[in-house]
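pasting for ref. prot 1 ->
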Amino acid sequence: MILWTIRHTKPYNPNDVCYGRLDFDVSPTFEDEAEGAIKAFLATGAKPTRLFSSPLLRCLKLAEKASVATGLTIEKEPAIIELNFGTWEGQKLTAVPRSEMHAWISDLRGFRFPEGENFYDIDERAGKFLDSLPDDGEFLCITHAGVIAALQHSRCGLPDEVFVEGQSSYSMVTKFEFNRDNEGHYRGTFTKIHDGIPMPTLKMGI
C-alpha cells in the first residue's frame, strides 16, 4: 500500500501561540506554498484513488487544491486531526507552567498535555485509520505534523528520541510504502519528497 501525506501550509498565527486543535486559517503565502506542494506531488506520478483530509481549515484549504489537481472528492477524516494540546492551546510556550514544560521536555512523545492528548494517542488513532485501508490501494492524506510523525514513529521505526514533530516543514510531501505484518498492522518506510518551508524554532522559554 502507498500512502502520500502532505502537511498543511503555514497557518495564520500572528500571536505565535501553541495550536493543535485551534482552527487557524492559512497565511497570505498559502497560494505559493500550496502550488509548490501540489506540483511536487504530481511530479512523482502518484495516482491516489482516495483523498482524505483533517477537518481543520488549514488542511481543508490545501485539500481543495489537491481535489482539483487529482479529481478526487475530499473525505474528512477525524483520525488524522492534529494533537489536542489541551490547556496549552492558544498560549505562548513561554507562558505555560514551567513544571509542565520541563515534564514535556523530559518525555516529548509520552507527556500528556493537561486536558489533552499525548503523541502516543495519535499513534493509536492514526494507526487504526491506516490499518483500515486496503492493501493494494494508493491514498493521499492532507494532515498535520503530529500525524505524519506518528506514522514515522509507530509504523516506520523512527526512535522516540528523534522528535520530528517540531521539525517538519509546512507543505512537506512524504511517501509511505507499507506492507502488513503478521498481526495485520502496516509497517514500512517513508521518503520525503518535498521540503516545503521550515517551521520557526520553538520558543520554550525555559
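and prot 2 ->
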Amino acid sequence: MSDLHDRWVAERHNEYYYKLAKKLDYRSRASFKLLQIDDRFGIFKEGQSVVDLGACPGGWSQVAKERVGEDGTVIGVDLRYIHPLEGVSFIIGDITDDNTMIRLLDMVGGKVDVVLSDMAPNIAGAYSMDHARSVELCMYAVDVCDRILKNHGKLVTKVFMGDLLEGYLDELRKRFENVYVHSPKASRPTSSEVYVISTNFLGAHNVKPKKLVREEVKAEFSAKGGNF
C-alpha cells in the first residue's frame, strides 16, 4: 500500500509542475527546478553571461534569460535541435567533442558568470553505469568552468546519486569556495537526481585543461554519373 501511495504522490507532483509549465509558457517542468534553485541560492544577476549545457528543450535557457535580462547573454549547447528562443544563442553539438568546445569558446570570446548543466546520460538501465556516466558529464561541465568561468562565478549541475558523488564534490571543492547538494521541490520525490550548486569560483588552480584539437569536418562524398 505504501508503494502505491508513494507512486500516486509522485504522479500528482509531476502533473502539477507539468501543467504549471504549460500555463506559464515554460518549455519544461525542469524550468521550476532552476527557478527554485535561483530563488534559494541567488545564481543570477541582471546583465550576466550564462552558458547552459544540455539545454534542450530550452527551459533552463529560458529561465536564465529572464533572470539576466536584456543586457545579459545566454548560450545553450545540446546535441539536439532547440527551437529558437528570443535573446538566446544555441550551439547544436556534443560538448564532449573538441570541436563543440572550440565553437563555444569562440562564441563566448572571454569569460562567463554562470555555467549550468542539466545534462543526463542516455539511460542504460544499469544504475552504476548511469551514475558513472552522469558524473563524467558533470566533469565536462567542470572543464568548461576551468576554461571560461570568471573568478567568483557559479556552477549548477545535475548528477545522479551514487558512490562516485563524493569524488565529484571533492573536485568542485578544489575550485569553489562553497559547494551545496540540493534537491528542489520541483524534483520528483522518487528521483535519484540531485543538484550541486557551487559558488565563488576560485580559479582552476593547479588544473591544466587538456589541449583542444580542431578536427576538419569532411564533406560527405556522393557519387555522380553512372553506376560503377
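Confidence is low (pLDDT under 50) at residues 219-228.
The first helix runs from residue 2 to 24.
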